[in-house]
């Protein structure tokens, strides 16, 4: 893959965006359906942006949250290319 080709960089960005969306979406679905826990803080954001709506929904949040449709969007951008010179193990040793 020639990384000096802008089309290749765009394709890589799009692939990384889709992969990130799938991973985050899977995590959110797990939190919602399996754990039934709002670890991301959607309720806080809802309360901040829509106080009246939150006042009405607050009592039923534990029932509403697991079935809420949540869309995850990611937009990965590669600003520059290069090589990592040090491994994490070496960086921790320094």
From TrEMBL:
Residues 3-82 form the Spore germination GerAC-like C-terminal domain. This is Ger(X)C family spore germination C-terminal domain-containing protein. One of its GO terms (cellular component) is membrane. GO terms for biological process: spore germination.
């Amino acid at each position: 893959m020639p990384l000096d080709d802008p089309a290749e960089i765009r394709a890589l960005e799009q692939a990384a965006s889709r992969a990130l969306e799938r991973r985050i979406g899977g995590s959110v679905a797990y939190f919602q359906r399996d754990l039934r826990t709002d670890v991301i803080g959607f309720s806080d954001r809802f309360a901040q942006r829509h106080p009246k709506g939150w006042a009405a929904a607050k009592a039923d949040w534990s029932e509403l949250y697991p079935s809420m449709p949540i869309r995850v969007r990611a937009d990965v951008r590669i600003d520059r290319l290069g090589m990592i010179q040090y491994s994490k193990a070496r960086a921790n040793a320094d």
